[in-house]
Amino acid sequence: MSTKAGVALLHVENDVAEHEQAVHRHLGQKIAALMGTAYLGSYDPQQHSSCYLIPDDTLVGDTPRHALGIQGVADFFGGAVSQPFMATKAITHTLYEQPTRIPPGWSEHFSQQASSAILRGYTVFDREDAMRAGEHLLRQGPVRLKPVRGKAGRGQEVLRDRQQLLDSVAAQDPEEVATWGLVIEENLSEVITYSVGQVMVAGITASYYGTQRLTRDNVGAEVYGGSDLVVVRGNYAQLSTLEMSPQARQAIEQARLYEQAAFDCFGLLASRCNYDVAQGVDALGQQRSGVLEQSWRIGGASAAEIFALEAFSLDAELHCVRASTYESYGENSPPDDATQLYSGSEPGLGLLSKYVKVEPYFRV
Fold first, then answer.
1. Which CATH code of 3.60.15.10, 3.30.1490.20, 3.40.50.1110, 3.40.50.2000 fits the domain covering 88-118+120-187?
2. 3-state SS class at 212
3. DSSP string for residues in 122-184
4. pLDDT tens for each residue of 186-236
5. Looking at the whole model, is its pTM more than 0.90?
6. Chain-wide mean pLDDT for the chain?
7. Nearest-10 crossing angle of helices 162-170, 127-138
């Protein structure tokens, strides 16, 4: 049984979509059951104390974290950092030469330590720096401009010439860029995106790797459609004992290198870590692989993570499962044996359904 009085959802973001909130509620109930304690709904500081918290975003700042009673990974599901940019993909790349703005807490050591785990690219905190960095990268081929707080690939643009770069940079909010940053990196084709991660809940550690699926939303745009994961009981060392392709093994090693650099350079505290690793072909026809970004908050793969933990908690002899999440648009039926997490119509998105499925893992 948990020493916590209950599990509560902590609302950090102001614009969390209803479909995400519905999944968070479902997973909050699952985590409470894993911990043998009550699910309390939304966190209320006047009523709730000594709670296990599930923030809907990475926590920023040491003072707020301590005020919430979060001292270690046993106190919450997610991650905590000291500065806003550290919670985003802005940490991935080095700053462009002679940067106009360097945010407090920036570490050049991170991109140096993680250099073999990332793609070519730059992070900027000023729009003029974005132009200089973009022009430099365009000499080697198309670039991808990425607002660092975008989710599921939304808001990203592939730019092929200086005019496109100029138009895109001009459209960025200067205060948003100054606070959170903007990423410009090489664009890959024929991309496969791996998910690699680890979660620690209720005394159980699980680690995983897998691939993401893309789908079409209700206006035909290509967006995140779910993940297919292989999840093991234990840490990355246990995960690495599985038979897998060289590409998957490379993705895991790059994610581990990236994660260690984050712990070393940013003082990361996290009970949920997830990394997107892209493998594809660059403009010169060369195979490339690198971590795109991290997620230290409840996210798209979290349903697979928590349902896998539930399976491990119910069977002490179970050590590996397949866990998949599905996000589908329009009229759809859930896959066989899947659990529906949400189905409804979202403003700006239309009809959307979310499912999760866990099954035994068999080597193929």
1. 3.30.1490.20
2. strand
3. EEESSHHHHHHHHHHHHTTS-EEEEETT--TTTT-EEE-SHHHHHHHHHTS-HHHHHHH-EEE
4. 999 999 999 999 999 999 999 999 999 989 999 998 888 999 999 999 999
5. yes
6. 94
7. 160
